[in-house]
Amino acid sequence: MPFRTAPSRALVAVAALTALGGCSRPSLYDQPEPRAAKAPAAAATLNVPPGQLPRPGLCRLWFPDRPPGRQPKARPCAEVEPGAPAGTWVLYRPSQDRNVVHVRYLDDRRAGVVIWIRVFDASSGAFVRDMKG
Length: 133
What we know:
Layout: H1 9-21, E1 59-62, H2 77-80, E2 89-92, E3 100-106, E4 114-121, E5 127-132
Antiparallel strand pairs: 1-2, 2-3, 3-4, 4-5
């Protein structure tokens, strides 16, 4: 006659929880974790020709993978930002500081969601500072 052992308490508990798992409601912890805002790769200079920057007070949608001549025209920021596609940049020239351009980086997966803002010198394209989006 073969020797049998009683199942351990831990094994019984795991089996019971597994059986009940199908009947329970999903909890908050079952939801996927939101992605943390991550800064775009560091750039020493902005690779946008100065002649392609928007005039002070305006914004311009910028597709990083398109040549400069194929970019949309500058418009008021209220028209550009809400419809900005995922993975694009919004270039903004503040009226009060014409020497800089703010680059608002949009999330790669969520349209209209700014994840990072970087400030560059408008004439040279040199990086000035980061601002969290």
